[in-house]
Write a structure and sequence with these properties.
By secondary structure, the chain is mainly beta. It has one helix and 13 strands. Strands 4, 5, 6, 7, 8, 9, 10, 11, 12 and 13 form a ten-stranded antiparallel beta sheet that branches. A three-stranded antiparallel beta sheet has the order 1-2-3, with no helix packed on it. It is rod-shaped. It comes from Callorhinchus milii (Ghost shark).
Length: 245
Amino acid sequence: MMAVCLATVPLIFLVCVSADLGNNKLSEFCAGHPGIPGSPGNNGMAGTPGRDGREGRDGFPGANGEKGDQGERGYTGPAGTPGNVGMRGERGEKGVKGESLVTYHSAFSAKRADASSFPPTDQPVLFDTVTQNEQGHYSPLTGKFTCAVPGVYYFVVHATVYRISLQFDIMKNGQSVASFFQFYGNWTKPVSLSGGSLVHLEPEDQVWVQVAVPDFSGMYASPKTDSTFTGFLVYSDWHSPAFLG
């Protein structure tokens, strides 16, 4: 059995509750003024970790870092496959002219056959017996060599001196290039006089041997001793870079 009593106090309501629950009785309970707030309770126990949150958005790019040290050189990789043949390039400039592979020759040798008289003065001595003259640059009729290949030549005279002394010149275009002399002292046997010179020649230049003084014209020849005139090309200007310019 439960009984509820309500009593009226000025502006205050009292509620009384009485209950009889078998052998147990509850005291009367009446609502009063709110009590003073209690002291904060102790911290509760830590809860279980929550789930991972969703992945956030990408942040802004950071500033460039400092340049690192150069790393070690790597191994050489395998050779690649050959590429396609490229287009043909433009034609290059004309190269410098090289030396000619052609070898130029000019050589002769002749001797005096007439031993009955000495050569006349102030004119070419005739060496009228030719022993070598493949190019035909020497004329036994005039005693002159005419240049066909420009370059440096060597000319030499081997003369037998007998009866009188001998002086002769190697001439180039009327000018003496070299002069030689051999005294003869009335010996019973002839003596020899030899002389030669290098000469640079241009085409059409001429070289010959000449005596100037009648008293010094003792150039002699016999079947056992000769007087010869020889010349040959040492090198041609056509092989010289200066000439090719």
